[in-house]
Amino acid sequence: MKTLQLLWAAVIFALAAPVVFLSSCDDDTTQIGSSLITDKSEIVVDTVFTLEGQSIDNDIMSARTLTQLLGSIDAKGYGRLSSDYVTQLMPSSLIDTSGVAESDIDSVKLILRFYGHKITGDSLVPMGLKVFPLTRQLPDDINSSFNPADYYDPSASLGQKIYTSNALYSDSLNGEGVHVISVDLPVALGRHLYNLYKKSPETFLSPLAFAKEMPGLYIANSFGSGRVTNIMNTRLAIYYRSHQKYYDSDDVERDTIYNYARIIAASTPEVLTNNNLSFSMAPELSAMAQQGTPLIVAPLGLDVRFKMPVRQIVEAFRSHIQAGAMGVVNSLSVLLPAEKIENTYGIEPPEQLLIVLAKDREAFFNDNKVPDNINSYLATYNEASGGYVISGMRPYIMQFINSNLADLKDDDCIFIATPVDTETETITQNYVSYEVVTAVGPYIDGPAMVKIMLDEAKIRFTYSTETVNF
Questions:
Q1: Distance CA 422, CA 407 (A)
Q2: pTM of structure
Q3: CA 18 from chain center: how many Å?
């Protein structure tokens, strides 16, 4: 009987239009087929389920990311966050050295690029940074608690800079409002790399080979507090200035000066970059979390753990399925209401949350996974709806609709909501373009926090039932 019911469910609900049974024009009519007539159909929208959960600590995270967070901020209602970073460098495999000599190297600069809106805090506050060469290779198991003390010499600074964020150079040529922090480095560094390329160009073909000659850089805060800046790219550039003579069309000797600039190495997704984070949470946030208020505080601080009422949802569905009835699950979605937390720097809720089974969280990031929309989802903050929506959870609940509830474990129901940064790629097929998430990493974008009101969460479970006489 169960097989027959599932077959009828597939037939009935796959049809968009109502089914009409026609009798023959024969005068000798019978009751054949009358027992298959549908007696009752119903669409049920169930919203009585509730979520239970609390804040959990997120004090160490994998911070290997292309995003580089630099600075320090102490915001009332949030806490004190500081971050500097270490990075390996991807060398340029081809460097045009024609027409220039080692003596033509005029200057060397480290260029930190960021978008003007990617700062948190006061753009006018003077901040200081120092650049140090790494003295040995970075460890593979690096994370946000990494202490670079044993990887550089504090007395061997390559350069330093006092900077603000509003008066910096804006690269208007690319039309993206990119700003730069430019740090002067020793000319000797540029000449060393120039000679290395001339002598051993194969060293520049591999980041591993290049790292043996130059393990990387440590960009450290030297002083100041009141702003953190999201650096999207770190570049090492060499500038040439060549004085040459030539003869014009009248055979008159002329002097000219040629200026060149070459990006010789940069931080890229292919090499290791790590943010060294330190966070001290505001007492009021800690008190709220201890009292049971679900809070998300990032990039370090708190995540939210909650339990989906799987057993109650499945039992509600099964209670509607009577003998001779069929049911089809249409959808399952969850609205997590969110409330901004007052603070002195306008710190906003994180844009996206990863909703992932707690037992899978560590493996999700370690294995560079993307959401499968079964046991992991992306939820985007929507100010209009007042929270985060987890949609498309039908495949998740179907795992339990079609199984024995006696086998259900808590690990199957407990999710963690944690902020993330994502990368997307635009795919075009049959003249239709859409975005695909290609990478998901821990949130390093800047300070963020939000209150998740689990007691007001709305779980919307929709299913259809049909009763058929056999």
A1: 34
A2: 0.80
A3: 45
